[in-house]
Amino acid sequence: MAQNGSTKTILRLIAERKGAFSLTFFAVFFVSFGMLATIGAVPELSVQSDVVGEVAGESVTQTLAEEPVRVVASSIKLDNNVGNPASSDIHVLDAALMKSAVHYPGSAMLNEDGNVLLFGHSSYLRTTLNPAYKEFNDIQKLKTGEIVTVYSATTAYEYRVTSVKYVKVDNGVIDLSKNGTRRLTLVTCNSFADKGDRFVVEAEFVQSYSLRN
After folding, report:
1. Is residue 98 domain-shared with residue 135, that is, in the same domain?
2. Residue 203 belongs to what domain range?
């Protein structure tokens, strides 16, 4: 019985000293941390900006969608800027077409699954006061297998042409769903309200590469 009492006394003393040590350790830690912070010597934590969470023990990365700003098809000497109007109102889109090719709002962005839809004027008049009227001249001359490159501010996205069609607006249905494979569609457009014939070029995503290298 005496031995049990001694054991309990020893255990109580260890617990008391352990608690005192813990309090002392944390007090010293926070005081030291505060002193380091005042002189800017606190080490920075390294956090990957594209990691947004963890599911079932696996990191989840965020796909950053990017606006298209330029479209190039070297085989037909096409090299034009791309506008990104925020509204799908016909008047807003037509006004944007007077300045450049247009990314259709609601279609996929670059680096997203789905269809990136670009419209551009096509005109074969010898003289035009506005060069935007010829943005998509000759896209019908693109051939299957040729590459069309669409640029964001930081990245180039290459697409391989899979089809070139001449369609009536009433007969041409363009899939704008943001799922499935990444793809690109180029469409000639006199006006978004026009019901005339149009050329439609479809292409599949091949690869992307950074412009910062």
Report:
1. yes
2. 70-210
